[in-house]
Amino acid sequence: MTVSPRVVVLAGGVGGSRFVLGVRAALQARGVADTGAALTVVVNTGDDLWLSGVRLQPDVDSLTYALAGVNDAERGWGRRGDSERVNHELQEWGAGWPWFTLGDLDLGTHLARTGWLREGLTPTQVLERMSHRWDLGARLLPMTDAEVDTVVVLPDGTRMHFQEWWTRHRATLAPAAFENPGIQGAAPAPGVLEAIAGADAVLIAPSNPVVSIGPILAVPGMRDALRAALGPVVGVSPIIGGKVVRGMADVCLTAIGVDTSASAVAGLYGARGGAGLLDAWLIGEEDEAAADAVAGLGIRPLVRPLWMTDPDRQAALGEAALAAAEV
Ligand code: FO1
Questions:
Q1: In the predicted model, what is the mean pLDDT of residues 276-292?
Q2: In terms of Cα–Cα distance, which of 101, 149, 30, 157 is closest to 7?
Q3: Which pLDDT value is given to residue 247?
Q4: DSSP-based three-state secondary structure for 248
Q5: CA 167 – ligand 1 centroid, Å
Q6: What is the pLDDT confidence band of residue 1, given thresholds at 50, 70 and 90?
Q7: Are 174 and 255 contacting, i.e. CB atoms less than 8 angstroms apart?
Q8: DSSP letters along 41-109, please?
Q9: Which pLDDT score is estimated for 4?
Q10: Hey, which of 74, 163, 246 would you mutate to test ligand 1's pocket, going by the most ligand atoms within 8 Å of its Cβ?
C-alpha cells in the first residue's frame, strides 16, 4: 500500500461533494496528513453560466463550500445561513431569472470570481486563488478553462441553458439531447492530465452520469488520459435500487437511451479492457443482482453500502472506493 496515495476524483454537484468528503475522510483515517496534496478533484463546469453580469460555477462552488464546511447541505447548493437581500433587489429590477436565487454570500463568491476573470485570470487560476480562503484538504481543478456551458435541446429544436431546464422546468421537458457547444475545441485544464497520469487511483463519483460526468469525459483528451492511467479507474453507481438518489439523472439517462440501473450506467462508462473507462464499479447492496451483468461487461463489480447519508457512511464509501483501487 502506498503511504500517501495520489487520488483523482471526477465529480460534480451534490453526490460529488458528498463522495469527495468521504474520500478526504478516508485518506485522513489512513493517516494521510496532507490530503490537499493527495486528493485532486476534477470538477464539472458544464453547469456554469453568466447571470446578472457574474459568472456562476455551481458544481465548483458546491465542492468548495462542502469541503470548507460552509455549504447549505439541506438545500444542496449555496451557503448555509445565506440571506437574499441582493436577490430581492435584482428581482425588483427585473434582472436575472425569477426562478434562480442568488444568495448574498454566494454573490460575494461570484463577484470575486468575475472580477478576477475580468482581470485576466483563467478559471483554473481563479479556483486556485479561491481555494486559499479555507483549508479544503483537496485540490480542485475545473475540467477545462473553456466556457462550454451545457445546452439542453428539446425535440422541437428549442435550446436552453441547462440551468433553465433544471431549475425552472425541473427537468420536466423531455430533452432530445445535451450539448456543450465549443467543447470539441476545449482542452483539459492545466494539471488535469498530469494528475490523472500520476494517480494511484482515479475515482468516478456517483454524480449525474450525463450532465455532470458526461461533460468532463467530453473534454478532448480526457478519455484517452483515463484509458492510459496507470492507476485503476473505479466508479461508484449513482443509481441505488434502480432509482436515482437525488436530482433528475433518470430523465437525463432516458434522453440518451440508457436505463436507470446500476449496470446500465456501468455500460455507459464501459470497461477499460474494452473501449471504455472502468476497471471496477461499486454497486449498492440493493443492486446485488446486477453484479453478473456488470461482470459480463468486463468490469469488476463490488457490492457495497452506497448511501452517503452521514459522514461515517461517506467515509466508509470513500474507503471502499480506495480499497477497490487497491491503494
Ligand atoms: N438550484 C435551484 O433549484 N434553484 C435555485 O434557485 C438555485 C440557485 C443556485 C445559485 C447558485 C448556485 O451555484 C447553484 C444554484 N442552484 C439552484 C443549484 C444548481 O442549479 C443545480 O442544482 C446544479 O447546477 C446541478 O448540479
A1: 98
A2: 30
A3: 80
A4: coil
A5: 7
A6: very low
A7: yes
A8: EEE--TT-EEETTEEE-HHHHHHHHHHHT-B-TTTSSSBTT---HHHHHHHHHT-S-TT----HHHHHH
A9: 87
A10: 163
Our CA angle for 242, 248, 251, nearest 5°, is 80
**Running DSSP on this structure, what letter comes out for residue 136?**
-
CA distance 171 to 14: 17
Tell me the three state secondary structure of residue 147: coil
Distances (CA, A) of 292 to 281, 298, 299, 301, 302: 12, 10, 10, 8, 11
Q: How many angstroms does the Cα of residue 78 sit away from the middle of ligand 1?
A: 8
Task: Report yes or no: 182 and 148 within 8 Å, Cβ to Cβ.
Answer: yes
In percent, how much of the chain has pLDDT > 90? 96
Alpha helices in the chain (DSSP H): 13-29, 35-38, 58-68, 85-93, 104-118, 123-130, 162-163, 192-197, 213-218, 222-228, 249-255, 262-269, 291-296, 311-324
